[in-house]
Specification:
Elements lengths: L1 H15 L3 H6 L20 H7 L12 E9 L3 E5 L6 E4 H6 L12 E8 L7 E4 L1 H18 L2 E10 L2 E6 L2 E6 L18 E10 L4 E5 L6 H10 L5 E10 L2 E5 L4 E5 L20 E9 L6 E4 L11 H4 L5 E10 L2 E7 L2 E6 L14 E10 L4 E6 L10
Parallel strand pairs: 3-5, 13-15, 18-20
Antiparallel strand pairs: 1-2, 1-4, 2-3, 4-5, 6-7, 6-9, 7-8, 9-10, 11-12, 11-14, 12-13, 14-15, 16-17, 16-19, 17-18, 19-20
Length: 389
């Protein structure tokens, strides 16, 4: 028995001295690869584990712009693969901001997003598509304009020229001149209301969008309007609205506008001083605006032009008296009669003399330019100015 045990120990000793080569050359029925022994610190996070494989997760920051691919579009959220350890999500307020565009998005679409939160409590990247949404809205407006279709906008606030409106976060402008006839003079009622409008102008570079309630007319439309009127024709109409830039006139089924520059020969500051809603006036047809079909009218062209008889009343070096109507950086305008203003240049006004709107000044006509419709005046000084020698 003792000899048998000694033989077993001898074989074990010889086996322990065998080289790796001897072991590998020995026959094995199911050889297995032995994983290399890992060295260094064991990974404690997903980032560390993936980094050992050579895969690097991008580090995201708030406000960063990233490229991604839509993997899911749901009723209240959109999931986007942006190459992070988890998918990005567009939800809550960010989803509501582009809700009108969700129907245009599909799984597989490539788009640009902005990082709102690099990682929320659920480990997700919170994303925003507002910038992408704005780009798509600009393109949508371009297409709508070309197709002549309507869009819905929200009235925001009234200013002197019309109504500021909102289209999916983009601010646009609906001029009073582009309102439907039934809404002229009632623009304040459109604040907070949804309005159906046409897209008249789109300028993304200039951040300018102009809307209109008036359909762009075709050549046939313009021909029909032109067949009912003639340029130079005198017509009678009823004032339907008065706005800061002029007055609208109902010509019996056709609409015309008298621009502020065509109300009178003198400078008009407030059209309401000349027109009253409901009154009947005589107008002259100047032409038709091809973009709106509105007829351009004039009142002053039916009146005598005071400049045509200027030479019969005024001459150089003549002394006249007039009332100051405007003060500008380059001088004071003095009204000689309706439609005739002369300028006292700032260099002609002594430093110690105060000139105000409404003052009556005695002046001397320095020069008359009938073609340029300009009169230069000089003050008649009743006492020597300070510094005079």
């Amino acid at each position: 028995m003792a000899k048998k045990q000694q033989a077993i120990r001898k074989k074990q000793k010889e086996a322990s001295k065998a080289s790796p080569k001897d072991l590998s050359s020995s026959k094995q029925t199911n050889p297995k690869k032995i994983a290399p022994k890992k060295t260094g610190k064991e990974p404690v996070s997903m980032e560390e584990l993936l980094s050992q494989t050579g895969y690097r997760i991008p580090s995201l920051t708030r406000g960063q712009t990233v490229q991604g691919t839509i993997v899911s579009v749901r009723p209240k959220e959109i999931l986007i693969d942006v190459g992070a350890k988890s998918e990005g999500i567009v939800a809550g307020r960010e989803f509501e901001a582009i809700k009108d565009l969700v129907s245009q998005l599909s799984v597989g679409d490539h788009l640009t997003a902005q990082v709102v939160i690099p990682e929320n409590d659920l480990g997700q990247v919170v994303l925003s598509l507002r910038v992408t949404g704005a780009e798509r809205r600009w393109q949508s407006l371009e297409n709508t304009k070309d197709q002549g279709e309507k869009v819905a906008v929200l009235g925001m606030e009234v200013n002197r020229g019309g109504l500021i409106v909102d289209y999916g976060g983009l601010r646009g402008f609906l001029p009073s001149s582009q309102l439907d006839s039934s809404l002229i003079g009632k623009i304040s009622q459109l604040v907070g209301q949804k309005i159906e409008v046409y897209v008249a102008e789109v300028d993304q570079e200039g951040n300018r969008i102009i809307f209109s309630q008036r359909r762009k007319l075709t050549r046939d439309d313009l021909k029909k309007i032109a067949s009912k009127i003639k340029i130079g024709q005198q017509m009678e109409g009823k004032v339907s609205a008065v706005l800061p830039f002029g007055g609208f006139v109902d010509l019996g089924g056709l609409e015309g506008m008298v621009h502020i520059s065509e109300i009178a020969w003198e400078k008009v500051a407030d059209p309401s001083s000349y027109f009253r809603v409901g009154e009947t006036i005589q107008v002259l047809v100047l032409g038709v605006d091809e973009s709106t079909g509105r007829i351009n009218l004039s009142v002053k062209q039916l009146l005598s032009d005071p400049w045509k008889k200027l030479g019969e009343k005024y001459s150089k070096e003549q002394t006249i008296a007039g009332k100051v109507t405007r003060i500008t950086p380059y001088g004071a305008f003095v009204n000689l009669e309706p439609g005739i203003d002369g300028l006292v240049h700032i260099s002609k006004i002594p430093p110690d003399k105060s000139v105000n709107v409404g003052d009556v000044l005695d002046c001397t006509i320095e020069s008359i330019d009938e073609k340029g419709r300009r009169i230069s005046l000089d003050l008649v000084l009743k006492e020597k100015p300070i510094g005079y020698r």
